[in-house]
Amino acid sequence: MKGHVDTRWPLGRTIVAFVVIALLMLGILEGCITPSATGSAQPSNDEEEKDVITQAYTEGRYLDAIRLYEKALSDPSSVITETMKREYYDSIDKYVEVALDKARTVYGTEKDYDSALYVLETFYDEAEGIDVIQDTLEEAGMDYLNAKYMDLVDEAYQAENYLLVAKLYEEASWWDVEITESMEQQYEDSVTKYVASVSSMAQAAFGDKKDYNAAMSAIRPALVESKGISAIMGQLETMMNEYAEYAPVPLSSLSCTQSNQMYYNSKYGSWRESNAQDVNGEFYNIENVLFPIHEYYDSDAEVSYIQYMLNYQYSTFAGVVFRPYTSLSCADKWNYPGTVKIYGDGQLLYQAPGITKNTYNSYPFSLDVSGVREVKIIMHGTWRDGYSSSPKVCLGDLELQK
Question: Domain 249-401: which CATH class?
Answer without folding.
Answer: mainly beta
